[in-house]
Amino acid sequence: TVQQFVAHLSPGQIAAEVFPVVDLDGHTSGVFTLADLEAIPAKHRVDTQLGAVAAHHVPPVIVAHDLDASEVATMIRPHGNVAVVERMEHPIGIITPLALARAARLSTLGWQTMPARGSSASTTRPGRKA
């Protein structure tokens, strides 16, 4: 539920704006935003399921952890501007236009991303619904 999610946020998650929702097998089934949670009246947070919150969003693009950022940028525009990064079919991160812009700014300072391995055809797959 929303209440359980908020109660168990880790320090690393507090700054995030977008969060993945996983099914019982740990596979990505959607995303929701901090604004989505804020919009739910406090009295309903105890029984509102995160999957119901995520159902209001376009399914995110699912990308492999080693996909090149430029490929991700072109893929997310038509899909709600969100990609869920997965490794071994489990979410490990979220990419948004803001995150890509931040990475681009950091790269001008000498920060380097991990080089991509493989092509987009072998490292991406369409979003799944639970």
Main sheet overview: 4 strands, mixed
Question: Order of strands in the sheet with the most strands?
Answer: 5-4-3-6
Count of helical stretches? 6
Mean pLDDT value: 82
Alpha-carbon distance between the two ends: 16 Å
Count of DSSP E strands?
A: 6
Radius of gyration: 15 Å
Strand content: 15-25%
Anisotropy-based shape: globular
**Helical amount among residues, as a percent range?**
25-40%
Task: Catalogue the unreliable spans.
Answer: 115-130
Oligomeric state of the chains in view? single chain
What is the helix/strand order? Answer: HEEHHEHEEHHE
- Class from secondary-structure proportions: alpha+beta
Would you mind describing this structure in some detail?
This protein has helices spanning 2-7, 34-38, 50-54, 69-76, 97-107, 120-123, and strands at 18-22, 28-33, 61-64, 83-87, 90-95, 124-125. The protein is an alpha+beta fold and 130 residues long. The model is unreliable at 115-130 (pLDDT under 50). The longest helix is centred in the C-terminal third of the chain and has 11 residues, at 97-107. A hairpin with a 5-residue loop joins strand 1 and strand 2 (28-33). The protein contains six helices and six strands. Strands 5-4-3-6 form a four-stranded mixed sheet. Strands 1-2 form a two-stranded antiparallel ribbon. Helix content is 30%, strand content 22%.
